Fold:
Amino acid sequence: MKKEFAVIGLGRFGGSICRELSREGMEVLAIDLDEDKVNEYKDIAGHAVIADSTDENVLRELGMRNIDHVIVAIGDNIQASILTTLMLKELGIKTITVKAQNDYHEKVLSKIGADHVVHPERDMGKRIAHNIISNNILDYIELSDDHSVVEVKAGSKMSGRTLVDLDIRAQYGCNVVAIKRKKDVIVSPMATEEIRESDVLIVIGADNDISRFEKNLVVED
Ligand code: ATP
Structure:
């Protein structure tokens, strides 16, 4: 059976999730208080309805119980976002993803059982900052408060050297989990793998360790 999604709040973030899920052929129920927003998504999502998600009866009437994954993308109204999440939780929704506005909001959402709390502006800010620090850092994904995965261009400092020679695990405490080489991906590369300048390395580790690795082996002098 096809997974069913609902997106509550059709601002830029919720709207973009709604568009992308629909484009991927997913069944999406789009919900917003604002009639204009709902009209905008009528032809994009499977169903688009004007509704107030803080009204428990409305959520029931919409058949929310049968939805597999609900994305709560209510922006400024933190109270509405928390209340909606709480009620979705009570309805027994399997997976709830909520956009947090700030750290306090995030804390409350985690406490009341939101499965995923996202902070798109903050996370994108961090990713862009890492990209600005070094042109060789292509992407950055936060795993926890102090662990991440980065995607880096190998560059000249690592070119022609093997993983064992660079001794990344012992020297920097991080692991190269994959190497992207043109169209190939080498998963769990051998220690004897020789790195090419144009390779892209996927590195996992503690932020402090990754930072030392970046400084010494990635950032060009
Ligand atoms: P963006 O996602 O565009 O960066 P944002 O996070 O500030 O911005 P808003 O512009 O506030 O998001 O958009 C949130 C949407 O959620 C609005 O379209 C608003 O009408 C809708 N919304 C707010 N409260 C409710 C509610 N109780 N039920 C349904 N929709 C709601």
